[in-house]
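Lecture 7 notes: from sequence to structure.

We start with a single chain of 376 residues. Read the sequence below before looking at the structure.
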Amino acid sequence: MGKLATKSDQESGRSFNIVFSNYIMCKLPQIGINAGGSEILQKERAEKISQSEKFYWDDNDEPHRRRKQEILKEHPVLKSYMGIDTSTKFKVLFWVGFQLLSLHLLQGAPWYTWLFCCYTLSGSINHMMTLAMHELSHNLGAKGVTPNRWLAILANLPMGIPAAASFKRYHMEHHKFQGEDVVDVDIPCEAEGWFFHSTPRKVLWCFLQPLFYSLRPLAISPKEPTKWEFINIACIVAFDLTIVYVWGLKELLYLVVGTLFGMGLHPVAGHFIAEHYVMNEGQETYSYYGPLNWLTFNVGYHNEHHDFANISGKHLPDVRKVANEYYDEMPHYHSWVKVIWDYIVDDNISPYSRVKRVTMENKEIEDLKARGGLVK
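Now the structure, written as tokens:
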């Protein structure tokens, strides 16, 4: 397995726009299983690694749980930031309304104006709504689980494609079992790494990212639909039919194509790569401290988010400010566009550039699937 971005690469001019300081890896404490566990687990781990050797395999548990404990011990004031952000629902309502207004204003617009607005406006706003869904999947928009589910479905409406209910189920497992083979479906599959390795193919991969993001979970770890999936689908279908009835098919395409644009080769979609693709070997989560955080519920503060998933995006900059000795010297980004560029042009970076681990026996994984996952 070849090395990716290292400090020597940075010093020689091959910048990944990551800020490298005197970063000390002991700031990334890990809960070590150290390739331990039962004999069955060790055997299954060896088998899985042999089947996908090109990924970055780690023998330790994900690093965020331990770091959260250490930071809270040193900075208990962070507990005061835990809880909901009451402004989230108003942001969702505003941008859903803005999308509907856009449909009205763009009626009769020439194709080039439609296409430009579809990529810039609809793409950016609908991606923002996916990140509202992300915020709401952590129950950070209102008190109680059910109100957050309904708010997530509201945010999902202008996307034109049902996603909120299933996203919550898979995303909770991404947090609890980060990097776990088969369980964390945020990680590309072996076929993606095998095929999308050259610059032209990685460009195609970026365009097709919405397809992989939505279909990969169904292929790797399918879940039995719950009532919330059916409610989600019914709401989206009703909304889409209403759009066609009131404005027309072209207006529905404005929303759906905007979603595909916004999650594909788009500046805001750079966070898909920036969050966990290994640019600095030994680190598996990265933060972004640039202006696009204003549009994305501060999802760029990704180390902070994984460390404190019960703190809303509004207060993630406060986490960094309070615990700056942990985050400021950690390699991070200032441009998602540069992240996309580096991913595409650098031969050392590909869908294989993700950290994987095996801390659960196959039986444990099957038991988790049989229960319908962490969340139903």
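The chain has a mean pLDDT of 91. Keep this in mind for problem set 3.
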